[in-house]
Specification:
single chain, 1% helix, mainly beta
Protein backbone atom coordinates (compact mmCIF):
# COMPACT_ATOMS: atom_id res chain seq x y z
CA UNK A 1 0.00 0.00 0.00
CA UNK A 2 2.95 2.34 0.42
CA UNK A 3 3.36 2.24 -3.35
CA UNK A 4 0.14 4.25 -3.53
CA UNK A 5 1.39 7.08 -1.29
CA UNK A 6 -0.58 6.01 1.77
CA UNK A 7 -0.53 8.71 4.43
CA UNK A 8 1.93 10.71 2.34
CA UNK A 9 4.44 7.84 2.08
CA UNK A 10 5.66 6.34 -1.18
CA UNK A 11 8.17 3.51 -1.68
CA UNK A 12 9.55 2.40 -5.04
CA UNK A 13 12.78 1.09 -6.51
CA UNK A 14 14.99 0.30 -9.51
CA UNK A 15 17.04 -2.82 -10.21
CA UNK A 16 19.26 -3.29 -13.24
CA UNK A 17 21.56 -6.30 -13.45
CA UNK A 18 24.23 -6.34 -16.17
CA UNK A 19 25.98 -9.39 -17.57
CA UNK A 20 29.08 -8.02 -19.33
CA UNK A 21 31.67 -9.65 -21.51
CA UNK A 22 34.72 -7.47 -22.24
CA UNK A 23 37.80 -8.15 -24.31
CA UNK A 24 40.79 -6.00 -25.27
CA UNK A 25 43.32 -6.58 -28.08
CA UNK A 26 46.18 -4.36 -29.18
CA UNK A 27 46.17 -2.99 -32.70
CA UNK A 28 48.47 -5.58 -34.26
CA UNK A 29 46.93 -8.48 -32.30
CA UNK A 30 50.26 -9.41 -30.70
CA UNK A 31 48.60 -9.21 -27.30
CA UNK A 32 45.18 -10.73 -26.80
CA UNK A 33 43.61 -10.40 -23.39
CA UNK A 34 41.30 -13.12 -22.22
CA UNK A 35 37.69 -12.08 -22.27
CA UNK A 36 36.18 -11.34 -18.87
CA UNK A 37 32.60 -11.91 -17.76
CA UNK A 38 31.06 -10.03 -14.87
CA UNK A 39 27.69 -9.70 -13.17
CA UNK A 40 27.23 -6.17 -11.81
CA UNK A 41 24.42 -3.85 -10.78
CA UNK A 42 23.89 -0.69 -12.80
CA UNK A 43 20.96 0.16 -10.55
CA UNK A 44 20.13 -1.16 -7.10
CA UNK A 45 18.17 1.66 -5.56
CA UNK A 46 15.27 1.91 -3.14
CA UNK A 47 13.41 5.21 -2.75
CA UNK A 48 11.51 6.24 0.35
CA UNK A 49 9.51 9.45 -0.06
CA UNK A 50 7.04 11.37 2.02
CA UNK A 51 4.89 14.44 1.49
CA UNK A 52 3.87 16.22 4.66
CA UNK A 53 2.87 19.59 6.09
CA UNK A 54 -0.02 21.79 5.06
CA UNK A 55 -1.01 21.01 1.45
CA UNK A 56 1.91 18.55 1.33
CA UNK A 57 4.34 21.41 0.69
CA UNK A 58 7.17 19.51 2.44
CA UNK A 59 8.84 16.68 0.54
CA UNK A 60 11.34 14.13 1.92
CA UNK A 61 13.37 11.68 -0.17
CA UNK A 62 15.90 9.02 0.83
CA UNK A 63 17.59 6.92 -1.85
CA UNK A 64 19.21 3.73 -0.63
CA UNK A 65 21.95 2.68 -3.07
CA UNK A 66 23.22 -0.89 -3.06
CA UNK A 67 26.38 -0.17 -5.08
CA UNK A 68 27.78 -2.03 -8.09
CA UNK A 69 28.08 -5.33 -6.25
CA UNK A 70 25.08 -5.00 -3.98
CA UNK A 71 27.34 -4.97 -0.91
CA UNK A 72 28.09 -1.25 -0.55
CA UNK A 73 24.77 -0.04 0.74
CA UNK A 74 24.49 3.62 1.68
CA UNK A 75 22.16 6.61 1.33
CA UNK A 76 23.28 8.72 -1.64
CA UNK A 77 20.19 10.97 -1.31
CA UNK A 78 18.72 12.14 1.98
CA UNK A 79 17.04 15.53 1.88
CA UNK A 80 13.92 17.62 2.51
CA UNK A 81 12.46 20.27 0.21
CA UNK A 82 10.39 22.92 1.97
CA UNK A 83 8.82 26.33 1.38
CA UNK A 84 11.03 29.26 2.31
CA UNK A 85 11.00 33.05 2.30
CA UNK A 86 9.81 35.06 -0.74
CA UNK A 87 8.11 32.06 -2.37
CA UNK A 88 11.35 30.12 -2.70
CA UNK A 89 12.02 26.42 -2.08
CA UNK A 90 14.82 25.33 0.25
CA UNK A 91 16.51 21.91 -0.06
CA UNK A 92 18.45 20.65 2.97
CA UNK A 93 20.57 17.49 3.19
CA UNK A 94 22.32 15.33 0.59
CA UNK A 95 20.84 16.00 -2.84
CA UNK A 96 21.76 16.06 -6.51
CA UNK A 97 20.82 18.54 -9.24
CA UNK A 98 21.70 17.47 -12.78
CA UNK A 99 21.08 20.57 -14.91
CA UNK A 100 22.73 19.81 -18.27
CA UNK A 101 20.44 17.10 -19.63
CA UNK A 102 19.33 19.18 -22.61
CA UNK A 103 22.88 19.03 -24.00
CA UNK A 104 23.49 15.31 -23.59
CA UNK A 105 22.66 12.74 -26.32
CA UNK A 106 19.01 11.70 -26.40
CA UNK A 107 17.80 9.97 -29.57
CA UNK A 108 15.57 7.58 -27.58
CA UNK A 109 18.66 5.86 -26.17
CA UNK A 110 17.20 5.84 -22.68
CA UNK A 111 19.21 4.04 -20.01
CA UNK A 112 21.21 2.21 -22.66
CA UNK A 113 23.26 5.13 -23.95
CA UNK A 114 27.01 4.49 -23.82
CA UNK A 115 29.81 7.02 -24.36
CA UNK A 116 33.22 8.18 -23.21
CA UNK A 117 32.60 11.55 -21.59
CA UNK A 118 32.27 10.00 -18.16
CA UNK A 119 29.47 8.91 -15.91
CA UNK A 120 26.21 10.74 -16.55
CA UNK A 121 27.69 12.94 -19.28
CA UNK A 122 27.27 16.06 -17.11
CA UNK A 123 30.39 18.20 -16.97
CA UNK A 124 29.59 20.76 -14.27
CA UNK A 125 26.55 19.66 -12.28
CA UNK A 126 25.23 16.24 -11.19
CA UNK A 127 27.20 16.18 -7.95
CA UNK A 128 25.92 14.74 -4.70
CA UNK A 129 25.94 17.80 -2.47
CA UNK A 130 25.84 17.93 1.32
CA UNK A 131 24.42 21.35 1.99
CA UNK A 132 21.65 23.77 1.07
CA UNK A 133 19.89 24.46 -2.22
CA UNK A 134 17.56 27.38 -2.96
CA UNK A 135 15.27 27.71 -6.00
CA UNK A 136 12.86 30.38 -7.19
CA UNK A 137 10.37 29.94 -10.02
CA UNK A 138 9.40 32.82 -12.29
CA UNK A 139 7.14 33.07 -15.31
CA UNK A 140 10.23 32.81 -17.55
CA UNK A 141 11.99 29.99 -15.73
CA UNK A 142 13.92 29.05 -12.60
CA UNK A 143 16.98 30.35 -10.76
CA UNK A 144 18.81 28.49 -8.04
CA UNK A 145 21.86 28.34 -5.79
CA UNK A 146 23.78 25.69 -3.83
CA UNK A 147 26.11 26.07 -0.84
CA UNK A 148 27.94 22.93 0.30
CA UNK A 149 30.71 22.09 2.75
CA UNK A 150 31.03 18.32 3.10
CA UNK A 151 32.47 16.67 6.13
CA UNK A 152 35.98 15.27 5.99
CA UNK A 153 35.82 11.59 5.09
CA UNK A 154 37.77 9.17 7.26
CA UNK A 155 38.52 5.50 6.76
CA UNK A 156 38.05 2.80 9.40
CA UNK A 157 41.42 3.68 10.91
CA UNK A 158 40.51 7.34 11.24
CA UNK A 159 42.80 8.45 8.41
CA UNK A 160 41.64 11.02 5.88
CA UNK A 161 40.47 9.62 2.55
CA UNK A 162 41.75 11.55 -0.47
CA UNK A 163 39.33 11.70 -3.40
CA UNK A 164 39.71 12.50 -7.06
CA UNK A 165 38.42 15.93 -7.93
CA UNK A 166 36.35 14.74 -10.86
CA UNK A 167 34.82 11.65 -9.27
CA UNK A 168 31.03 11.73 -9.00
CA UNK A 169 31.53 10.56 -5.45
CA UNK A 170 28.52 9.59 -3.39
CA UNK A 171 30.05 11.24 -0.33
CA UNK A 172 29.44 14.83 -1.44
CA UNK A 173 31.67 17.01 -3.57
CA UNK A 174 35.41 17.05 -3.01
CA UNK A 175 35.93 20.69 -2.03
CA UNK A 176 36.16 22.47 1.29
CA UNK A 177 33.53 24.87 -0.04
CA UNK A 178 31.35 24.67 -3.11
CA UNK A 179 29.14 27.51 -4.40
CA UNK A 180 26.89 27.32 -7.45
CA UNK A 181 24.41 29.64 -9.19
CA UNK A 182 22.25 28.73 -12.18
CA UNK A 183 19.32 29.91 -14.25
CA UNK A 184 17.07 28.07 -16.70
CA UNK A 185 14.93 30.38 -18.85
CA UNK A 186 12.29 29.80 -21.53
CA UNK A 187 11.60 33.16 -23.15
CA UNK A 188 9.29 31.84 -25.90
CA UNK A 189 8.13 28.43 -27.07
CA UNK A 190 11.13 28.44 -29.41
CA UNK A 191 13.94 30.12 -27.48
CA UNK A 192 15.52 28.97 -24.19
CA UNK A 193 18.71 29.86 -22.33
CA UNK A 194 20.65 28.08 -19.54
CA UNK A 195 23.36 29.76 -17.47
CA UNK A 196 25.44 28.45 -14.59
CA UNK A 197 28.59 28.97 -12.59
CA UNK A 198 30.33 26.96 -9.88
CA UNK A 199 33.28 27.67 -7.60
CA UNK A 200 35.28 25.07 -5.70
CA UNK A 201 37.73 25.87 -2.93
CA UNK A 202 39.91 22.79 -3.08
CA UNK A 203 40.89 20.36 -0.37
CA UNK A 204 43.92 19.08 -2.31
CA UNK A 205 41.97 16.20 -3.83
CA UNK A 206 44.54 14.18 -5.70
CA UNK A 207 44.62 13.08 -9.30
CA UNK A 208 46.20 9.81 -8.19
CA UNK A 209 44.70 9.42 -4.78
CA UNK A 210 46.04 5.90 -4.35
CA UNK A 211 49.59 7.30 -4.20
CA UNK A 212 49.25 9.22 -0.94
CA UNK A 213 50.84 8.04 2.26
CA UNK A 214 49.24 7.92 5.73
CA UNK A 215 50.18 11.55 6.38
CA UNK A 216 48.61 12.81 3.16
CA UNK A 217 51.96 13.26 1.37
CA UNK A 218 52.46 12.31 -2.29
CA UNK A 219 54.45 9.22 -3.09
CA UNK A 220 54.68 9.55 -6.86
CA UNK A 221 55.86 12.33 -9.15
CA UNK A 222 53.12 13.96 -11.16
CA UNK A 223 50.42 13.85 -8.50
CA UNK A 224 48.21 16.95 -8.71
CA UNK A 225 46.42 18.61 -5.80
CA UNK A 226 43.63 21.03 -6.72
CA UNK A 227 43.61 24.28 -4.73
CA UNK A 228 40.68 26.01 -6.37
CA UNK A 229 38.61 25.97 -9.52
CA UNK A 230 35.74 27.86 -11.07
CA UNK A 231 33.66 27.05 -14.12
CA UNK A 232 30.83 28.73 -16.03
CA UNK A 233 28.58 27.48 -18.79
CA UNK A 234 25.95 28.87 -21.14
CA UNK A 235 23.51 26.82 -23.18
CA UNK A 236 21.21 27.93 -25.99
CA UNK A 237 18.10 26.05 -27.13
CA UNK A 238 16.11 26.93 -30.25
CA UNK A 239 13.12 24.81 -31.27
CA UNK A 240 12.30 25.00 -34.97
CA UNK A 241 9.14 23.07 -34.10
CA UNK A 242 8.09 20.55 -31.47
CA UNK A 243 10.23 17.83 -33.07
CA UNK A 244 13.41 19.58 -34.26
CA UNK A 245 15.76 21.64 -32.07
CA UNK A 246 19.17 23.30 -32.42
CA UNK A 247 21.31 23.50 -29.28
CA UNK A 248 24.70 24.87 -28.36
CA UNK A 249 26.68 24.91 -25.11
CA UNK A 250 29.90 26.59 -23.98
CA UNK A 251 32.03 25.94 -20.86
CA UNK A 252 34.95 27.94 -19.48
CA UNK A 253 37.25 26.84 -16.66
CA UNK A 254 40.10 28.14 -14.57
CA UNK A 255 41.89 26.02 -11.99
CA UNK A 256 45.04 26.07 -9.95
CA UNK A 257 46.82 23.43 -7.98
CA UNK A 258 50.11 21.99 -6.90
CA UNK A 259 52.15 19.27 -8.50
CA UNK A 260 54.76 16.96 -7.02
CA UNK A 261 58.31 17.92 -8.04
CA UNK A 262 61.71 16.54 -7.07
CA UNK A 263 64.50 18.60 -5.46
CA UNK A 264 67.74 16.91 -4.35
CA UNK A 265 65.92 13.63 -4.07
CA UNK A 266 63.11 15.08 -1.95
CA UNK A 267 59.56 15.42 -3.17
CA UNK A 268 57.74 18.67 -2.63
CA UNK A 269 54.64 20.50 -3.83
CA UNK A 270 55.13 23.22 -6.45
CA UNK A 271 52.43 25.60 -7.62
CA UNK A 272 50.98 24.18 -10.82
CA UNK A 273 48.47 25.98 -13.00
CA UNK A 274 46.46 24.34 -15.75
CA UNK A 275 48.29 22.79 -18.64
CA UNK A 276 47.60 25.54 -21.16
CA UNK A 277 48.43 29.24 -21.33
CA UNK A 278 44.78 30.09 -21.88
CA UNK A 279 41.97 29.01 -19.60
CA UNK A 280 40.47 25.84 -21.13
CA UNK A 281 37.08 25.81 -22.84
CA UNK A 282 34.65 23.25 -24.16
CA UNK A 283 31.96 23.93 -26.73
CA UNK A 284 29.51 21.88 -28.73
CA UNK A 285 26.67 22.38 -31.20
CA UNK A 286 23.95 19.81 -31.81
CA UNK A 287 20.70 19.00 -33.58
CA UNK A 288 18.07 17.01 -31.68
CA UNK A 289 15.49 15.45 -34.01
CA UNK A 290 12.67 13.35 -32.59
CA UNK A 291 11.32 10.22 -34.26
CA UNK A 292 8.01 11.97 -34.96
CA UNK A 293 9.85 14.14 -37.51
CA UNK A 294 11.66 11.34 -39.36
CA UNK A 295 9.00 8.62 -38.82
CA UNK A 296 11.43 5.71 -38.46
CA UNK A 297 14.19 7.04 -36.24
CA UNK A 298 15.27 9.85 -33.98
CA UNK A 299 18.62 11.51 -34.63
CA UNK A 300 21.22 13.30 -32.52
CA UNK A 301 24.02 15.13 -34.37
CA UNK A 302 26.82 16.81 -32.38
CA UNK A 303 30.19 18.41 -33.03
CA UNK A 304 32.44 19.83 -30.30
CA UNK A 305 35.89 20.47 -28.88
CA UNK A 306 37.74 20.21 -25.57
CA UNK A 307 40.79 22.38 -24.99
CA UNK A 308 43.94 20.93 -23.50
CA UNK A 309 43.68 21.11 -19.71
CA UNK A 310 39.88 20.94 -19.55
CA UNK A 311 38.72 18.87 -16.57
CA UNK A 312 35.95 16.41 -17.36
CA UNK A 313 33.64 14.90 -14.78
CA UNK A 314 34.46 11.23 -15.26
CA UNK A 315 37.55 9.15 -15.84
CA UNK A 316 35.88 6.23 -17.57
CA UNK A 317 33.40 5.72 -20.34
CA UNK A 318 32.15 2.29 -21.31
CA UNK A 319 34.29 0.40 -18.78
CA UNK A 320 36.95 -0.09 -21.45
CA UNK A 321 37.65 3.25 -23.15
CA UNK A 322 38.98 5.28 -20.24
CA UNK A 323 42.02 6.73 -21.99
CA UNK A 324 40.03 9.05 -24.28
CA UNK A 325 39.22 11.10 -21.18
CA UNK A 326 41.19 10.72 -17.96
CA UNK A 327 39.78 13.61 -15.98
CA UNK A 328 42.11 16.25 -17.49
CA UNK A 329 42.33 16.48 -21.28
CA UNK A 330 46.04 16.05 -22.02
CA UNK A 331 45.61 17.46 -25.54
CA UNK A 332 43.04 19.33 -27.59
CA UNK A 333 40.23 16.95 -28.52
CA UNK A 334 37.78 17.45 -31.39
CA UNK A 335 34.86 15.08 -31.72
CA UNK A 336 31.59 14.36 -33.44
CA UNK A 337 28.73 12.10 -32.39
CA UNK A 338 25.80 10.56 -34.21
CA UNK A 339 23.12 8.66 -32.29
CA UNK A 340 19.85 7.23 -33.58
CA UNK A 341 17.04 5.47 -31.70
CA UNK A 342 14.06 3.61 -33.12
CA UNK A 343 10.88 2.80 -31.21
CA UNK A 344 9.12 0.21 -33.37
CA UNK A 345 6.14 -0.38 -31.10
CA UNK A 346 5.27 -0.53 -27.41
CA UNK A 347 7.55 -3.53 -26.95
CA UNK A 348 10.60 -3.23 -29.21
CA UNK A 349 13.24 -0.51 -29.60
CA UNK A 350 16.71 -0.35 -31.14
CA UNK A 351 19.54 2.17 -31.23
CA UNK A 352 22.94 2.76 -32.75
CA UNK A 353 25.64 5.40 -32.37
CA UNK A 354 29.04 6.37 -33.73
CA UNK A 355 31.44 8.72 -31.92
CA UNK A 356 34.65 9.90 -33.59
CA UNK A 357 37.54 11.76 -31.90
CA UNK A 358 40.69 13.53 -33.09
CA UNK A 359 43.32 14.03 -30.37
CA UNK A 360 46.06 16.56 -31.16
CA UNK A 361 48.86 14.59 -29.52
CA UNK A 362 51.24 14.75 -32.48
CA UNK A 363 50.56 11.11 -33.32
CA UNK A 364 47.36 11.46 -35.36
CA UNK A 365 45.35 9.66 -32.67
CA UNK A 366 41.77 9.16 -33.86
CA UNK A 367 39.88 6.85 -31.50
CA UNK A 368 36.27 5.99 -32.20
CA UNK A 369 33.30 4.17 -30.72
CA UNK A 370 30.46 2.34 -32.40
CA UNK A 371 27.53 0.71 -30.64
CA UNK A 372 24.24 -1.03 -31.38
CA UNK A 373 21.51 -2.24 -29.09
CA UNK A 374 18.03 -3.73 -28.91
CA UNK A 375 15.52 -3.51 -26.05
CA UNK A 376 12.41 -5.49 -25.31
CA UNK A 377 9.76 -4.36 -22.84
CA UNK A 378 8.50 -7.49 -21.18
CA UNK A 379 5.82 -5.66 -19.20
CA UNK A 380 5.25 -2.36 -17.39
CA UNK A 381 7.92 -3.29 -14.85
CA UNK A 382 10.64 -5.10 -16.82
CA UNK A 383 12.83 -4.21 -19.81
CA UNK A 384 15.63 -6.34 -21.25
CA UNK A 385 18.38 -5.05 -23.51
CA UNK A 386 21.35 -6.40 -25.45
CA UNK A 387 24.23 -4.06 -26.39
CA UNK A 388 27.47 -4.31 -28.33
CA UNK A 389 30.13 -1.58 -28.28
CA UNK A 390 33.46 -1.53 -30.13
CA UNK A 391 36.13 1.04 -29.30
CA UNK A 392 38.97 1.52 -31.75
CA UNK A 393 42.34 2.91 -30.60
CA UNK A 394 41.12 3.41 -27.05
CA UNK A 395 44.38 3.07 -25.10
CA UNK A 396 48.01 3.26 -26.23
CA UNK A 397 49.63 -0.11 -25.57
CA UNK A 398 53.22 1.13 -25.19
CA UNK A 399 54.35 -0.56 -28.41
CA UNK A 400 53.31 2.13 -30.84
CA UNK A 401 49.81 0.75 -31.20
CA UNK A 402 46.43 1.15 -29.58
CA UNK A 403 44.03 -1.25 -27.94
CA UNK A 404 40.76 -2.37 -29.47
CA UNK A 405 38.05 -2.81 -26.87
CA UNK A 406 34.83 -4.80 -27.14
CA UNK A 407 31.90 -4.94 -24.79
CA UNK A 408 28.79 -7.12 -24.91
CA UNK A 409 26.18 -6.37 -22.27
CA UNK A 410 22.85 -7.99 -21.42
CA UNK A 411 20.79 -5.90 -19.04
CA UNK A 412 17.63 -6.73 -17.13
CA UNK A 413 16.04 -3.58 -15.69
CA UNK A 414 13.10 -3.71 -13.29
CA UNK A 415 11.20 -0.76 -11.82
CA UNK A 416 8.75 -1.34 -9.01
Amino acid sequence: VLEDRLGGWHIHGDLALDIKYTKTNDVDNTTKAEGQTSFTFDDSKLYVERWFGEDDEYFFRARFNGGDNGDQAYFDRFYVEMPFFLDTRLTVGRFNWALEGEYRPKANLGKYVTGSFGEGQHLMTDWNWNGFGLTKNFALGTVGAVVAHPNQILDSAGKRVIRKYWDNTDDGNWSDWMLMLYGQFQFTEQFGLDLGGVYFKGDKAEEYYDHIDANGNPTRLGDIAFDKMWEVYAGLRFNFNENVAFKGVFYHQKWEGERVQLNNGQQYWQKYEQRTKDDPNHWAVMFDIKQEALKYTSLWLEYGQFDQGFVTRGDKGIDTSGAIFKGIASDKIKYWRIAAGQEWNDKWATHLFYYGYKVDNGDDWKPSEIGVGVQYKLNDYTTMGLNYVHVKDAVEDGNGGYDKDNLIRFRTAISF
